[in-house]
Fold these 4 entries.
Entry 1:
Amino acid sequence: MAFVPFDRPVRAAFIGLGRIYDLNVLGYRGNPDVEVVALVDPDQQRLAQRQADWPDAATFSSAAELVASGIQVDAAEVLLPVPLHADGVVEMLGWGWHVNLQKPMCNDLLDAQRMLDAAKASGRVLRVMENYLFYEPLRRLKAVVESGEIGEVVGYHMKMVGSGNGGWHVPWSSFEWQLEQIGRGRGILVFDDGWHKLSTARWLFGPIKQVRSWIGTTSFGSGIDLDAPTMIAWEHACGVRGVWDITLAPDLYLRSDYYTNDERWEITGNTGFARVNRCTGRGIQQPSLEVYSDGEMRGYHALDDDWASSFRDSGRHWLRWLQTGEGPLLWSGEEAVEVLRFALAAYASSAADGIGVNPGQVV
Ligand SMILES: NC(=O)c1ccc[n+]([C@@H]2O[C@H](COP(=O)([O-])OP(=O)(O)OC[C@H]3O[C@@H](n4cnc5c(N)ncnc54)[C@H](O)[C@@H]3O)[C@@H](O)[C@H]2O)c1
């Protein structure tokens, strides 16, 4: 069934109103492409708090109650804990809703296939949002590289330092399901945050043909085993190689309005380099993008480098897409499966002492 664009504002429901709602909501506020008709969360306090944003929306403890109410929904903004993604999304697609799902899509290929099959069977669109692809410094980085300003790309690296000191408050309830994920071998750094880094790699240089990795563990007791120190390296089908190092510095204070991640992307060309200095947190407080070429350093001082803006723009992109059906979804369900395969290849490689694994062949 071909997608038919809407010729009126989309009737949307938020499913899950936890920590990340605060940023996902930015794409919806003041947006004529959408009418928020319902809010769903079993937590009554959250429902009451978020209702202040949308006084005309109806509130429900479950998506099934919303369906039973008869209120018509076109699209769901799904902000559920990851262990609930697969069953929740299959159910919602079955009700005929289009779905914009927070990453990571799900934990394994079987669940991913169930979700793709459900989208196909219902003729509805499944998008797995990736806000990093809407972060202006990263978009500009891609444009600089594609312009040839740093010559031919010869390699790149990404860096992530996790810290628990600084940033916004994350309620313990938001960590509880992460612990469940850790127990299933889907750690918070490699799999949850890592989804973003692997996505940017796929977006920058295309399909990946081989992954090698060394995933470590740092234990904080009571099942809190964080998946660092870790190194992951890969080669794209185009021949470019990338590497990502993840380290933990639990007591490092990092100024941040959001999570305390110190992140970088640095692409080397044969005549220069281009580096994004920060993203979620305010690590290096130089211009968020710097480009070195032919003996000169250029700093981009006026980019919209507030991480929250990437959520706003990702959300607006989705809601506009529903009005036009044109252009890439960033990401489609199928593209998200490629990101999942990339992560699964990293796990398989690490389990086999770092051998090269083709993400296309993981099962
Ligand atoms: N893009 C990013 O950078 C980013 C950052 C943080 C989180 N996330 C993703 O967003 C999603 C949510 O994360 P979070 O940190 O907001 O989690 P959270 O635990 O803070 O919020 C989840 C919410 O879902 C509610 N919920 C639980 N079961 C429900 C159900 N059956 N129906 C409706 N609501 C239900 C909970 O009560 C809670 O309010 C996850 O997929 C996470 O990986 C993405």
Note: Residues 15-20, 40-43, 46, 62-63, 79-82, 84, 102-103, 131, 173-174, 192 surround nicotinamide-adenine-dinucleotide (CB under 6 Å).
Entry 2:
Amino acid sequence: MMSDALYRDFNSYLRRLYGCRVQKIIVDAGLTCPNRDGTLGHGGCIYCNARGSGSGAALHSMSITDQLAAGKSYLARRYKAKKFLAYFQSFTNTYAPFAVLKELYAEALSVPDVVGLTIGTRPDCVSDEVLDHLHVIGKRHLVWLEYGLQSAHDKTLALINRGHNVEAFSNAVERTRRRGIPVCAHVILGLPGESREDMMETARFLAATDLQALKIHLLYVIRGTELETWFRAGKYECLTRADYAATVSDFLALLPPHLIIQRVTGDPHPKELISPFWALEKQKTLHAIHEYMQTNGLFQGKNFIPCKRKPRHSTFIDT
Ligand code: SF4
């Protein structure tokens, strides 16, 4: 696979771990987010709409079991997948009473062929109690935490209304890794007010953090968001595909070779997308990234400068 030579992909990692195709199934647990429900008093991230990246399945009263059953049958047909990870993606999946979370995670793991959990959440929203529980689950199943950082610059996090700072992210990663749970961080390229060098500084920050995987997203404008208002008022301009491909490539070159790259672009909902429309043509974007890397002799880790300090918590199922 082309990405194998240029960056370390997640599918290959899972195949090495389980010896078969493993697919994530997105589940919507019907939770919310403290940055949307008013708790943090921020009104939500400027690029997030009412769906909060959700599938909406919970709104249609589908249980976790039903969502996983539907996902299994589709992904087994499409990719010949044999094992699955329940991906709690929508909103903040550690933001509920502990007893509720325990039940949700247990229900997902009770579904046949679901071999693990991957839990997307905010770094300011994960308690030691939940981490301790996930550590116990992790002894028998694959468990990943996914934390949204988006940028390593506090000024950007304030501008986009994240409602947490970089320190909150570092703190969450440290507490998670202390328990040996692998962490995937999310970043967004093309955030308002950020220069190319700002984004490269984020890459260097991530390279020096004890992470096991990364998802790189493009910032796109979605209907019903604050960013849409900025865009229509001419206060925000989207990246071009060429700019994005070059930025992702340089970003990847700064990252350590061991980091698993779970994503190099996003998947906007076609009915919600305002701009840029090129974001809908994912294969063309992947091709542009691969072409830029090959033309410029880049690969993941090429410009990585190892940190003298070793990660403090190195427990990680590697292959
Ligand atoms: S943290 Fe996630 S769900 Fe909450 S407002 Fe931001 S993008 Fe939306």
Note: Residues 33, 35-36, 44-45, 48, 52, 91-92, 122 surround iron/sulfur cluster (CB under 6 Å).
Entry 3:
Amino acid sequence: MTDCVFCKIVAGQIPSTRVYEDEHVVAFMDLGQVNPGHVLVAVKKHAANLFELDDAQAAAVGRAGAKIARALKKAFGPEGLSVYQANGKPAGQTVFHYHVHLLPRHEGDGMELTWPVKNPPRDKLEEYAGKIRAVL
Ligand SMILES: [Zn+2]
């Protein structure tokens, strides 16, 4: 897409600090650096979100994410690592080109995620699972 900032990064039209690249993905340092070592893994061929990925892209993102996570552990020695990926504005997506955040974490680093659990009864879980299985 001509007006997509991540497509421009992939094409080298906007500079980035890259850490990894393969046939399907490019990984580069997030300009915001929530914590040192914060990396983004983006697909090369434009896909707005997870729903638009093909199987090869999805597999490549998983492989690259695990590889880079291991490198981040060695390079920065974080106490933890968060993987963030948002699809659509209500989910918090701000750049509409599929990407995954790999974010080294430390106790008290100020990063928070609200997780408002609902704890529905088992029959509700079965109902939800049935809806998913019906369309897989
Ligand atoms: Zn794009």
Note: The radius of gyration is 17 Å.
Entry 4:
Amino acid sequence: MAPTSDELLARSNRLGSEPHITNYAGGNTSAKGSEIDPVTGEPVELLWVKGSGGDLGTLTEQGLAVLRLDRMRALVDVYPGVEREDEMVAAFDFCLHGKGGAAPSIDTAMHGLVDAPHVDHLHPDAGIAIATAADGEQLTARVFGEKVVWVPWRRPGFQLGLDIAEIKAQNPQAIGCILGGHGITAWGDTSDECEANSRWIIDTAQAYIDEHGAAEPFGAVRPGFEAIGDRDARREKAAALAPSIRGIASHDKPMVGHFSDDPRVLDFLARDKAPALAELGTSCPDHFLRTKVKPMLLDLPADASVDDAIARLHELHEAYRADYTAYYTAHATPESPAIRGADPLIVLVPGVGMFSFGANKQTARVAGEFYLNAINVMRGAEALSTYTPISDAEKFRIEYWALEEAKLQRMPKPKSHATRVAFVTGAASGIGKAIATRLAAEGACVVIADLDLEKAQAAAAELGSTDVAIGVQANVTDAAQIDAALREAVLAFGGVDIVVNNAGLSLSKPLLETTEADWDLQHDVMAKGSFLVSKAAARILIDQGMGGDVIYISSKNSVFAGPNNIAYSATKADQAHQVRLLAVELGEHGVKVNGINPDGVVRGSGIFASGWGANRAATYGVDEEDLGAFYAQRTILKREVLPDHVANAVAVLTGPDLSHTTGLHIPVDAGVAAAFLR
Ligand SMILES: NC(=O)c1ccc[n+]([C@@H]2O[C@H](COP(=O)([O-])OP(=O)(O)OC[C@H]3O[C@@H](n4cnc5c(N)ncnc54)[C@H](O)[C@@H]3O)[C@@H](O)[C@H]2O)c1
Ligand SMILES: [Zn+2]
């Protein structure tokens, strides 16, 4: 790799890893240098610049676009003017060097046209604070003197690149500029100088805000709107509200949620100015593309009851949708893309915190991070002046920009279980773990609930980051533990869509040896456990109003009278009938309830490893290690059943194809005639 791009990547990673310097995937950096052109053997001047969609903090060589500077500069001569500036993005493709690396972003012009070897464009909270202050231009002069120049708001693009290039040419003393409504750009002769200049602008802006800013930029505390002090009480209320709020955010498209009770959010929501500022919305294009132009704010105090809060949130949702539709109608032209949904992506609840939404957990989390950036921006702007974001008309030109729409159209088709949140009991082992793994692979967010927290978390970590799966502790015989586990699920992902009653254990004993304690344990974990989980989860599914699936991992033994199995088989029959009963009861809420009857899943099953296998082997008169093969030979298909086969059935039952099936049991037993259903 060329040393120029080495330096550039190191600088980008440093800048991008500090959230106050730039938001996730926000901003871009570049370096210019020379390499030998393999076609001519002559040196060629190149631009390395972060490509479209990348993140500075984690940028690698693959994330860089590489363009020929002579060709980029030549674009100035064919530029048709600001009305047609979008055409220049396609023209960048004709400037690429070799294969060109990542796709050039809209900001490429700014980097290529500004005559400096190194350029940073960033979205720092302190910089945007000045960029969104009503008197941003005067403030820029006051804070930075002649070292930093004000550039009035303009939608990113070729013209903005030309504007900044001109400013740099006219102001040789300048090290960068404040881009009105948006962010900062800095430059330098070396990579270190460029980074130092970026940091100087950000640090100087922050120091000025700290020194000269008003003490309480968001105004006085609104009595009654303070944060609920006790963390557990706050999160309990958040969890009680979460399913309804997710339902609100998912009216047009199902969404995954994220919750934050960051003290900076709670302080903002407690203050006098919160309603007016929330209404003004975010300003930096990166921010409102992820947060929508404005959040939805509950106008009730922290001690409002959950029922009152939900009722009011539904009213506010109607108003929000009308307002968003009016914004769309007011600014849309015949060429504009269709409205993309009118639900809020950020919902703010005073005393409790912020709920943010996206098409997956990462997007939902980042939307919340961006609104926190926006709160920091508003705090800085209000400390010095009056927060003045760009106009709705300009926001619309960004949100429904043809180039933005093209980006969305290029996104890969979502997986079958995208946006769905699955809560799987007993998922640290065996069949449950296979189900969790499969659902995660299909795009679901997964909550692994099991007896032992560490094992649950370890199983979750095997599936990916906490954006994919989390592990929680729950003994399904204990209603309080189930409630706590479901609370964690809804706080992690916004709600629950798929509930899998899988936890189980097995004692195989003849009637005369089955003790009362054996009977109770089997029934407590399976019949009662799944009843308790279904009951607690149904509350969430109903509040969400998004339908859902409840799956029972019953057993062949729920219908087959196998030997020495009174307690286990009886409780499995109980679970199987719960499927039918709940299918009838929950159908009106769009919730499907189905079951699976596995049999003879030996490999990977903890049940078999812990004595049941030896017992079954003895019952059938075979060696324990041959048990899987023995079960296979009993089957019609002569195939061994593995945990993955059960997981396949769960994926199908909860996937898009069996949308009209409820109250069904699917045998996954390689064919056992005695357990055929009729
Ligand atoms: N393995 C088979 O052949 C087979 C056949 C039919 C049905 N099943 C059913 O499949 C389910 C999973 O069985 P497996 O074979 O994967 O067993 P497994 O032992 O590998 O997994 C069961 C999991 O449930 C957990 N668990 C047990 N009691 C719990 C409780 N009170 N609360 C929460 N979690 C608890 C365990 O910790 C374990 O992680 C069970 O319901 C079982 O009855 C299994
Ligand atoms: Zn930007």
Note: The pocket of zinc ion (ligand 2) is lined by residues 27, 121, 123, 156, 182-183 (CB under 6 Å).
